Amino acid sequence: MEQKILDHYLEFGTYTYPGLYSDKLKADLPDDIREIGLLVRKSVVHRSTLVDGNIGTNADLRFGDMTKMPWWRQPEDDVLVTAAAMLAELYRRDGRGFVIDREPENKLVVTCRFTTVLFAAILKARGIPSRCRAVHHYASYFDDSLGKVSADHWINQYWSKTDNRWITTDVDGSLSFHEGENDPYDMPLKPFDFPADAWIAIRNKEVDPEYFYNGSGHRGAIVILWSLIYDFHAIMNDEITYTHVINYGRLENFPKLTKDELGKIDNLARLLQDPDGNFDELKHLWDTEKDFRLLTGGLL
Predict the structure, then answer these.
(1) ∠ CA 124-114-235 to the nearest 5 degrees?
(2) β-bridge mates for residue 130, sequence order
(3) What whole-number distance in Å separates Cα of residue 252 and Cα of residue 236?
């Protein structure tokens, strides 16, 4: 791996920058990746767990007793967007920081994108090249109720000097794996549909676009475009949130995309199939292509 690429993934972005907590992340956390991942996972509750309570995957209270959650606690994805914000709130709610016995009412209620941002921030602070990735997956360790669909998800990859490779981790799903399933701290890529591959497969009519689903209830090629842009921005250390879309991805614009606009997306997808091999070209697009860089959503 080229050193300039590893140096890139040591850099903090707006969302992964831990602010004044950087030194605490070095001093207060263990060195073992699995132990760090467990402490992160024990610090958060997924919004679906908050809604479902003590049933399903939480029947054994592995995520904590949801009856202890204040009645007014809501999902915090729109509030705690950056690692610095999440860290500040974690320490505000429990000054011990990352502890295995954090009470449920003191956990953050966030989804997978936010867990990956927090995990990446910790690894970067400890000198480990790390990146977030937006993907889709069919994973029975989450939820079979939707049927056979590939749902949106976020994962991490970190560079192992020992193994000389990217290691893929799924901290958000790490406590939901069934016995005998993949190791969440060294995942094969097979369970995941990377949006670059999915987009090209859709364009080549090799897969039904309706196979792809996201948490907002949308299905089809548009959700893969959303994930493709999330992944591109994440590759550039800019882990935008679910509400951020490019003009191409607006619901009213997507059906009217021109041949040239679709071609530009096709090219981005081809480059993202090998983000390390195509790093320079992706960086050039990042620096020059406003259609992929400028966002709408919220007050944007």
Answers:
(1) 55
(2) 158
(3) 27
